[in-house]
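User: Fold this; tokens only.

Assistant: Input:
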Amino acid sequence: MRQEVLKRAKEKCEYCLSQSDLLGAELEIEHIIPESLNGTSSLDNLCASCATCNRHKGSRIWAIDPETGRNVRLFHPRQQRWNRHFRWSEDGTRIIGKTICGRATVEAWQMNRQRLVRARRLWMAWGEHPPPA
């Protein structure tokens, strides 16, 4: 099942789109709806995640949209399209939330953490970023 999830994700974190070979680390298999909230270990509830996105997500499925203050559901890669909720900044280093779900997810999972933004600059210089969504 792990190989199927990684193949479907094209070896990218399904949240921040970082490629596992550029991160220099294996992707984790993550429960989108955590088992603690009755999520299953079915393919429809599993995704590939970098360790940092997985750690920031934890068992949350809800977070506050920083613009409206509303408590909203976080991004679900099996049910939602990345391009609908996110886009890259003009310089390609930051993920911008386009919707309340996108903004809450970017904020909750700290998808623009300083080290990752610096890494994205290097990946761009190598012609490896931004990846297709």
